[in-house]
Design goal:
Radius of gyration: 31 Å
Largest sheet: 7 strands, parallel
Cofactor: Zn(2+)
Subunit structure: Component of the replication restart primosome.
Strand content: 15-25%
CATH superfamily of the largest domain: P-loop containing nucleotide triphosphate hydrolases
CATH class of the largest domain: Alpha Beta
CATH topology of the largest domain: Rossmann fold
EC number: 5.6.2.4
Structural class: alpha/beta
Number of helices: 25
Shape: globular
Strand order of the largest sheet: 14-15-13-16-17-12-18
Keywords: ATP-binding, DNA replication, DNA-binding, Helicase, Hydrolase, Isomerase, Metal-binding, Nucleotide-binding, Primosome, Zinc
Catalytic activity: ATP + H2O = ADP + phosphate + H(+); Couples ATP hydrolysis with the unwinding of duplex DNA by translocating in the 3'-5' direction
DNA sequence: AGCACGCCGACT
DNA sequence: GTCGGCGTGCTC
């Protein structure tokens, strides 16, 4: 038997199957979707078995060393999905596989140094010999790290046969085992044994008495570690096991990141709007029919309850459901809603979990221990075997697009998987992406509308403040008079305020006031960002940092000033203007520690603060009854980014943030501060008018030839020498022009807004197309052509349907 | 991705 | 003459 194996190297030259002989004894074991260790060149690598066959066109086959898995880690469906992913995002097969598996499944490669000829090594290189004899298991990387000069001497010793290298391929995925102790015999027998113990065996008696006291003795078991923690003697337990009175057992342990008790919730009564939306979803589940629903519901319209009841239906059919939620709204509250309804049947997947925790959640899914997974983007690859439903909440969120390889969009993967499983997809949003809403308009998706909030609360009243006018009147503060007044009012009424500051597009850079010099990164074409805590200037692209200069590097004046507004600055301003207000600041700095996110929100929920000031992360999901005022400090900070989706993002953001106010008994108010108060994105958001925004934005996209009217493909290349990239970019543009149909347009090559990152110069080409069968083959050829030959350091990357155009 | 082969320049 | 730089090509 022969296995086709993809070697665990995400690079083009090895992106093809390699044939290996399956050794006798493993013939019945190896299956497609398993990981194996194979000799590759002169190294050993992990590989993915994709196919079994009887013959190979290669004469001299090597043999599989070992099999890493008891069961395939990739189901047949996921293997095919990997193939599709590689094709449609132009990535390698293993890059696709790795994206579908928890990080713990990645192999750890180590090289162990073994001394073959100690005497001869002693003679030829005594220093090396004595060094190696001092270390227990000398690893190549460790030795080279601490003594770089030894590297060449070891290579020489290897070529002389004095040393050899053992390639270790370590599987990081290890299920944590825990020893559980239980009674091996009946209660009476334990009592008898206890009575017969010698007077000296006090510790053993203690343990026996503990077990005898347990009411449910026959099913009672607990971890050995817990026993020891309660003060029982480990030796005594061991003795009792030897005597056959107690029994121990290795139990798979799932690290549960959610140990807290969860209160069970039950299905709520639905409003008529909700039932109308739910019915077609249930029908689709019932009939095992693939459909895509776009659930357009205003904030607070009860979309989650629809999700929950749909899932309930899926579980009742013994099928499984995937729920995708953007990373930033995957908060404990959010997860609790699902755990509350479905309890133990829910697995959670997000970046806050440790490697091991993620692996455990993944195992629960694969082993059928859970029926629901709630997770961020990558949870779309959950290895369920009978998918009954996929839900994507906040469908418009750009975080569903992975920015690095494989550059997939979770929405596309969801629809592809749902087709294979013949099940529905529900896309939910208060502000659907134009792409999805347009598809609903064309009846490709089924539109479900929820126009009312469940508790009949009106949407908050929204006021737009013109910051230019404030400026003219001499108010240079970040707070307009009206907003400040309203905050004061809430302080008096003991109500709460949420202030939202979007930092993107407003990063704090440093500029010289007398000559206008902006301090930029020497490696990247971008201004450095000021970090107050360390008084440093840092580059957000390459990590370069330098001391904050005292004087201007160009004109030597001492008028270096910070520009831009950060949350820290706003907090300082709040403290100055409203010293009595208690403020909680939530941004990357204050939420870095695990659990601090949750902690700050709980503090705010318990009304230990009057004002919650934060960035993106507070735009979603917050639901506090006492919040009656929401302030958007700079609504147009996104509007001027060089991005055709800038208006859409602005509209979405204002709408989401406004939704945080007045969700309960007290009515809500929203103040939007803007320098462009007459922009339709700002006005339509203030009026809660999605349709108006949609119409206007669609017209613009149509005129400019952007999605959803055209698809985009972005080809970016980088090289240390500007002339080399320029040349390559020209070649790429002409290949595209010569091979694509007339209906497609090729733009560029152009230098992007950030022209250099990490000492590499950048160029881009863009393709706009409606239907272009030649696109994938041509792009494939371009990739092949420019990286096959290792083309002197040119890097080329392709992003189909890019979300970020920088 | 590694790793070796191979072909050039600067040293004992 | 040898050591060592990194361009090129292969790995079932």
């Amino acid at each position: 038997m022969i296995a086709e194996v993809y070697i665990d190297i995400p690079a083009n030259p090895v992106n093809k199957p390699f044939d290996y002989r399956i050794p006798e004894g493993l013939e019945e074991v190896v299956e497609p979707g398993m990981r194996v260790t194979v000799p590759f060149g002169r190294t050993r690598r992990l590989g993915f078995v994709t196919k079994l066959k009887n013959e190979s066109s290669f004469k001299q086959l090597k043999t599989i060393d070992s099999v890493e898995d008891h069961h395939p880690v990739l189901t047949q469906e996921l293997l095919e999905l990997g193939d599709w992913l590689a094709r449609t995002t132009l990535c390698t097969r293993v890059a696709a596989f790795q994206a579908m598996l928890p990080a713990a499944m990645k192999a750890d490669y180590k090289k162990l140094i073994e001394v073959e000829q100690p005497d001869q090594l002693q003679a030829s290189d005594p220093e090396l010999a004595s060094f190696l004899s001092k270390v227990k298991n000398p690893m190549w990387s460790e030795v080279v790290k601490h003594h770089p000069k030894l590297s060449n001497r070891m290579k020489r010793a290897i070529s002389q046969g004095l040393l050899s290298i053992h390639q270790l391929v370590q599987n990081q995925a290890r299920a944590k085992k825990v020893i559980h102790v239980s009674a091996a015999v009946s209660r009476e027998q334990l009592e008898n044994a206890c009575a017969q113990m010698t007077a000296r065996a006090i510790r053993q008696k203690e343990v026996l008495q503990f077990f005898v006291q347990q009411s449910d003795l026959s099913s009672f078991q607990l971890p050995l570690a817990d026993l020891v923690n309660q003060g029982f003697s480990r030796d005594a337990v061991n003795k009792l096991e030897e005597k056959g009175l107690l029994h121990d057992e290795q139990v798979d342990h799932y690290r549960d990141p959610f140990l807290k008790k969860v209160e069970k919730t039950y299905p709520l009564d639905l409003t008529s709007e909700q039932s109308e939306a739910l019915t077609p979803i249930l029908e689709s589940i019932e009939h095992e029919e693939h459909r895509v629903f776009l659930c357009h519901g205003v904030t607070g319209s009860g979309k989650t309850e629809i999700y929950l009841q749909s899932i309930q239906h899926v579980i009742a059919q013994s099928k499984q459901a995937i729920v995708l939620v953007p990373e930033i709204s995957l908060t404990p509250q959010m997860v609790l809603r699902f755990k509350g309804r479905f309890g133990e049947q829910v697995a959670v997947m997000h970046s806050g979990l440790s490697r091991g925790e993620k692996y455990d959640e993944w195992r629960k899914i694969r082993e059928g221990k859970v029926q629901v997974v709630v997770g961020a983007r990558s949870a779309i690859f959950a290895p369920f075997k009978h998918l009954g439903l996929i839900i994507i909440d906040e469908e418009h969120e750009s975080s569903y697009k992975q920015e690095d390889i494989p550059r997939y969009h979770a929405r596309d993967v969801a629809i592809h998987r749902a087709k294979t499983h013949q099940c529905p997809v529900v896309l939910g949003s208060a502000t659907p992406s134009l792409e999805s809403f347009a598809r609903a308009g064309k009846h490709v998706y089924t539109l479900l509308s929820l126009k009312k909030r469940v508790n009949q609360r009106p949407l908050p009243s929204v006021e737009i403040v013109d910051l230019r006018e404030e400026m003219r009147e001499g108010n240079h503060s970040v707070f307009s008079k009206i907003l400040l007044e309203k905050i004061r009012d809430r302080l008096e009424k003991k109500e709460q305020t949420v202030l939202f500051l979007n930092r993107r597009g407003y990063s704090t850079f440093v500029m010289c006031r007398s000559c206008g010099t902006v301090v930029t990164c020497p490696h990247c074409d971008i201004s450095l960002t000021y970090h107050r805590a360390q008084h440093l200037l840092k580059c957000h692209y390459c990590g370069y940092e330098q001391k904050m200069p005292d004087t201007c590097p160009t004109c030597a004046s001492d008028a270096m000033r910070f520009f831009g507004t950060g949350t820290q600055k706003v907090e300082a301003e709040l403290n100055r203007l409203l010293p009595e207000a208690r403020v909680i600041r939530m941004d990357v700095d204050t939420t870095r520690k695990k659990g601090s996110h949750e902690h700050l929100l709980r503090q705010f929920g318990e009304e230990q603060a009057d004002i919650l000031l934060g960035t993106q992360m507070i735009a979603k999901g917050l639901d506090f009854p006492k919040v009656t005022l929401v302030g958007v400090l700079a609504a147009d900070s996104l509007l001027h980014l060089p991005d055709f989706r800038a208006s859409e993002k602005t509209f979405q953001l204002i709408t989401q943030v406004s939704g945080r106010a007045g969700r309960h008994a007290l009515p809500g108010e929203v103040v939007i501060q803007s320098y462009t108060p007459d922009h339709y994105a700002v006005i339509d958001a203030a009026h809660h008018d999605y349709e108006a925004f949609y119409q206007q934005e669609m017209e613009l996209r149509h005129r400019a030839g952007y999605p959803p009217f055209y698809y985009l493909a972005l080809i970016s290349m980088t090289h240390p020498e500007p002339a080399k990239v320029a040349e390559a970019a020209e070649r790429v543009a002409s290949i595209l022009n010569n091979n694509l149909s007339q209906s497609s347009q090729v733009y560029g090559p152009v230098v992007p807004a950030i022209s250099k990152i990490n000492d590499r110069y950048r160029y881009q080409c863009m393709v706009k197309y409606k239907r272009e069968p030649a696109l994938l083959p041509v792009l494939h050829k371009i990739l092949q052509h420019f990286q096959e030959s290792g083309k002197n350091n040119l890097q080329i990357s392709i992003d189909l349907n890019p979300v970020v155009l920088m």
